[in-house]
Amino acid sequence: xxxxxxxxxxxxxxxxxxxxxxxxxxxxxxxxxxxxxxxxxxxxxxxxxxxxxxxxxxxxxxxxxxxxxxxxxxxxxxxxxxxxxxxxxxxxxxxxxxxxxxxxxxxxxxxxxxxxxxx
Length: 119
What we know:
By secondary structure, the protein is mainly α. It has five helices and two strands; from the N terminus they run αααββαα. It folds into two domains: 61 residues, Arc Repressor Mutant, subunit A (Orthogonal Bundle), CATH 1.10.10.10; 36 residues, no CATH class. It has a two-stranded antiparallel sheet with strand order 1-2. The longest helix has 17 residues.
């Protein structure tokens, strides 16, 4: 798992779990060492101003958010129309230069559903 993937995965874990999670649990869920978890937490605090704190009494990490507050990592959000335009552009470019945007658009592409035979 790459560093950015682990950052987003840790964010998901902390959002879902309302109680503090121990280092051991984070290591298991992120499939990495204790020092890697520490680096990810530090990077999230430094670069994304993530409100991650360690609770000594409950021996775990959690987001410290007030009532009604939320924390989200930055990302790209497209409307349905924008996605359609982006994928249409990719298809047109694929005829001119195949594979030109494949790497960049891979995260937004959905694999086609498997075809079912008629029974």
